[in-house]
From TrEMBL, chains A, B:
Its cofactor is Mg(2+). Pathway: Metabolic intermediate biosynthesis; 1-deoxy-D-xylulose 5-phosphate biosynthesis; 1-deoxy-D-xylulose 5-phosphate from D-glyceraldehyde 3-phosphate and pyruvate: step 1/1. This is 1-deoxy-D-xylulose-5-phosphate synthase. The lineage of its organism: Bacteria, Bacillati, Actinomycetota, Actinomycetes, Bifidobacteriales. Coiled coil: none annotated. Keywords: Isoprene biosynthesis, Magnesium, Metal-binding, Thiamine biosynthesis, Thiamine pyrophosphate, Transferase. The keyword Transferase applies. Belongs to the transketolase family. DXPS subfamily. Residues 250-271 are annotated as: Disordered. One of its GO terms (molecular function) is 1-deoxy-D-xylulose-5-phosphate synthase activity. InterPro entries: Dxylulose-5-P_synthase, THDP-binding, Transketo_C/PFOR_II, Transketolase-like_Pyr-bd, Transketolase_C. NCBIfam families: PRK05444.2-2. Homodimer.
Length: 627, 627
């Protein structure tokens, strides 16, 4: 790429540049990010907004002696480019080795691997406390976007910072929007601060006891350098509120006037979108969130979007008759098929509460208590932030809240966004009915039950790619129409899909297609026709079916697309523990895994069809040897 | 008690009273609360502060048509007395049937059962949204104490309230202190608001877009009635900030000038204590928190306080040499043996971050990253609020944070404070070393390791009452000195306490004394000497020992003082699943349980020694019948 960028191998190479050169460097990085995201996709809007701030931070401060702690790290691309990781962005082949987040394994300039939001301030407080305890002098800087500020941990961190005192610099990167849009009274105050050049009296930072500076031109390097120099080596916590432009550099021609500063929240939905002009993908994505790359062209919608859209369509048909039917999304709606046009039509039947998962559940519990029907939709990994509210406000209070859990299972995700932990988490909590549908039709049946007659806490794990593939191939495994909805508490009983002998395969949710393949393999290789069972529920066992299986089967194998330890398969094993029935549990290991390809993980976990066939064959042989 | 109170069977009986009578009623309730807490203990300070506000709320509003939602509900005694539950407070025999929290099972005036903090505003937002969706007119009121305001969920709720709009009244009961003391910049702003009669410019509520009123005399009924009448039927969210007096009515003679308004935060530790003059118990308790009753006199400190004090003593000895050794308590320090005098001596080695569990973990991860040694101490149930930070900031980042988990196990707790969920939660998270010491000495060994050579995430389940009882009786079960600290990763191997045959008992943590009793019972009743094993670790299995047991034992029984489903015993069962070894897992059912006596629960769970002896005997007989 550009000549200047080629000379930047570490932040110290920045420090010899003139202002004019710094600006040229920003332009070069901007072009690089656009071409990178065009190819691979990425968090384009937020990164385009933070090129100049990050250049200025590295110019003024001395990382890694000083520490720059990113929040969710969707603003870290420029930081990575400036800290010796340029080649990941310039060399298409290297991209696959790059974490989408900050990562201490990648660089000494990264202190943490962070993929959720709101904790940068707390982490920075801790690092500052330890610096003060040991007489250090480093500047500790947290960089947090306006979208993250609505989260409870961010507030708790801000509140504590003022009490702790000492050097701490909190850079609030205010690009006027969260993922879809910002929500909450806080954003009115931020808007008022922007409108008044930082002088508005209702200042949420000062109200928490913090010193405060405002930089109107948050993409002008000289202004940023001046502001950062003023706070460098401060002896007390200070917020530097910088006003940046989302998607800066994506000029005219793209949707929604990206690059203009006129995009107030009142501009409506389309103003909050961005997409590269030549990248139709399947529609524009939210400016601050993921931009699909060229490699996504002509790709069919994934299971998240497909089943999410089905769910929204089914609910929307009822909106006019059910005033309290409410879809709640703590940000990231689009990824789960909650499209902008749906949101617009839904009116108050849809609520994006911003990045505030704890609140999303308490809010839903309140709606349910008053007779409404709330549905909370987000990724498996983000429900973790509401564990306590799921346990207390939802489950303990018996609140008729339905959770739709997206993005689950063994998949090539970032370590921060694992999809293998959700079933272990949910099934550990008393009082939740946890369902794992194995077809789109059953998913909608379960949703209808949960938001209709159930009036109790229900968790539905949205079907994944395997289920979608069987449906797209016209080969669904489970019956299209579930017949169990008539009972008072449906899905209590497992569904026998194939009656066999000796070996029973219990394959949960998106593992069912794998179970069918395994059944075929056992028939082919051992001449054994196993029983194939669709449990479609994972919070409790169908003891009646398990007892019946015990009389004609000597081995019961469980398959689940999630973590084994603490999971449903272990509960089945324990149930059979005192009996003569042997058990084998197939599932994911308890481990962190960062962008490991799915096939490699299934291999490692012994979850391939050949490996499972072998394991079952071995178990049967061992059993035969001593009976 | 007094004549007026005898005539109040529901809030409508209030509405005919004169102001003079309302004041007399307040006096009568005050005397009742003091005598009640003298007898039974209770959250005295916070309830004494809210007598007049709750009388005024019920006088002005029309509950249960209007809704009054308590936060943690440590301010609900007067509400209960006024809503038909007087006899629980006047009749000593009835007290045992009374929930310490609001409870819909007790009364239609209670919307939720709430025992954690900060969610009242979110719940109220939800009820208000449903009211508006259905054209209702009720006033929705959230009552939240200043101590709860530091929690993330409270902030998320405040932030959302402003955006939602419509009728919502948030009463902030500001008695100038949290449990031990308030922490965070927010409290400086509250102090400035109090000092300025609500006119200070740094107003955290206005900064979140909320309307705001201030009532200086928050214990003067006429002022409260006037303020509540002004906001009744408001068409937008409004905060009513009332300044109340903690412990009002506990006049001179008690420690710390309780009842005086002069208790600013600067008054030091003793000013923040209250105890009834004739109740020495084991020292004063924090004013806003639990006041021990007469029934606690001469009682020995419980296991929480005993082992907590031991831990603090061990850490304190190292403070002068280790600048980064930091004990972090998200409120409630005293319950865990973190005494005021320790806190004072510890200086910056002790940090009470207030009710902000998410922040506590992120903060600790920051300290660890910078080389310090943080120890976070709180109840099992409160760690739930930091699930995501434990998974992301602590475990995924490999942060050298130690968690001390207090108040665990099957016990007669409120449903909101269960001690049976923690092991399931912690062991489901990858990357945590989870230890269950079985003696005080081993607890200290583990703490020394975790805060010394380990430099990794460690969870220690503080020993409970059974362990303490064996130690007090001079009959510890496990060796006093652990010999496993020398290895690189200690406590990897189970400890064989008694070598036997046929049956192996694996008894985890505080279930070990139960395991020994069971071993004795098996010997006595079946003439069988079982092997007794102390696993003292529950995040992973010692497969080497399990394999060795398999050769000489046909039945392995696990005992754990926690929930079976998702627990360690199920992992043992799954490990033996494909083998000929049978398993039996003893532990708690997955259920909510509210103040059920421990003996009744152990009976229900089949965890008594006779029941377990029978179960093992039956399993052996069944096994013999078909081998």
């Amino acid at each position: 790429m550009g000549k200047l960028l080629d000379s930047i191998d570490s932040p110290k190479d920045l420090k010899v540049l003139s202002l004019e050169e710094l600006n040229r460097l920003a332009d070069e990085i901007r072009q690089l990010l656009i071409s990178f995201c065009r190819r691979h996709g990425g968090h384009l809007g937020s990164n385009l907004a933070t090129i100049e701030p990050i250049i200025a931070l590295h110019y003024v401060f001395d990382m890694p002696h000083d520490h720059l702690i990113f929040d969710v790290s969707h603003q870290a691309y420029t930081h990575k480019i400036l800290t010796g990781r340029r080649r990941f962005y310039t060399d298409p082949e290297s991209q696959k080795d790059l974490s989408g987040f900050t990562s201490p394994k990648e660089s000494p300039y990264d202190d943490f691997m962070l993929g959720h939001t709101g904790t940068s301030i707390g982490l920075a407080c801790g690092m500052a406390a330890q610096r003060d305890a040991t007489g250090g002098k480093a500047n500790i800087i947290a960089l947090i976007g306006d979208g993250s500020l609505s989260s409870g941990p961010a507030f708790e961190g801000l509140d504590w910072a003022a009490e702790q005192g000492g050097n701490l610099i909190i850079v609030v990167n205010d690009n006027e929007m969260s993922i879809a849009e910002n929500h909450g009274g806080l954003y009115k105050s931020l808007a008022a601060l922007r409108a008044s050049g930082g002088r508005s009296s209702d200042n949420p930072f000062r109200a928490l006891g913090l010193d405060y500076r405002y930089v109107e031109e948050g993409n002008r390097i000289e202004d940023l350098i001046k502001a950062f120099r003023q706070v460098k080596d401060t002896d007390h916590p200070v917020v530097v509120h910088i006003h940046t432009r989302k998607g800066l550099g994506l000029g005219q021609g793209s949707q929604g006037q990206i690059g203009s500063t006129s995009m107030a929240q009142s501009d409506g939905q389309t103003a909050h979108m961005t997409s590269l002009p030549d990248l139709p993908a399947e529609g524009p994505v939210e400016a601050n969130h993921w931009q699909d790359g060229l490699d996504s062209l002509n790709r069919l919608p994934n299971s998240r979007k497909t089943y999410g859209r089905m769910a929204m369509q089914a609910l929307e048909a009822r909106f006019s008759q059910e005033p309290g039917l409410t879809v709640i999304s703590p940000a990231t709606p689009l990824s789960n098929g909650i499209d902008p046009d749906f949101r617009q039509r839904a009116g108050n039947h849809y609520r994006d509460v911003g990045i505030a998962e704890s609140h999303a559940i308490a809010y839903a519990a309140g709606i349910a208590k008053a007779g409404g029907t709330p549905v909370v939709a987000t990724s498996a990994t983000f429900f973790q932030r509401a564990y306590d509210q799921i346990e207390q406000e939802m489950a303990l209070n018996g609140s008729a809240v339905t959770l739709l859990v997206f993005s689950t299972g063994v998949a090539k995700t970032d370590a921060t966004h694992s999809g293998t932990a959700d079933m272990v988490m949910m099934r550990g909590i008393p009082g939740l009915t946890c369902l794992a549908p194995t077809s789109g039709a059953e998913f909608l049946d379960m949703l209808a039950w949960a938001t209709g007659p159930a009036r109790q806490p229900v968790v539905i794990r949205v079907p994944g790619e395997r289920t979608l593939a069987t449906e797209r191939a016209g080969k669904p495994i489970a019956p299209v129409k579930s017949d169990s909805t008539t009972a008072g508490q449906p899905w209590d009983r497992y569904r026998i899909l194939q009656q066999g002998r000796t070996v029973a395969l219990l394959a949960l949710g998106d593992a069912l297609p794998l179970g069918r393949d395994l059944a075929d393999s056992l028939k082919a290789s051992l001449g054994l026709k196993p029983t194939l069972v669709d449990p479609h529920r994972y919070d409790r066992l169908d003891e009646q079916t398990l007892d019946a299986l015990a009389s004609t089967h000597s081995l019961v194998a469980t398959l689940e697309d999630g973590q084994l330890d603490g999971g449903w398969g272990q509960a089945v094993a324990a149930y059979y523990g005192p009996s003569r029935v042997r058990t084998l549990a197939f599932g994911a290991a308890k481990e962190f895994k960062d962008r490991v390809p799915q096939a490699a993980m299934l291999e490692r976990y012994g979850m391939t069809v050949p490996a499972m066939t072998r394991a079952i064959s071995d178990a049967l042989a061992d059993q035969a040897s001593w009976i």
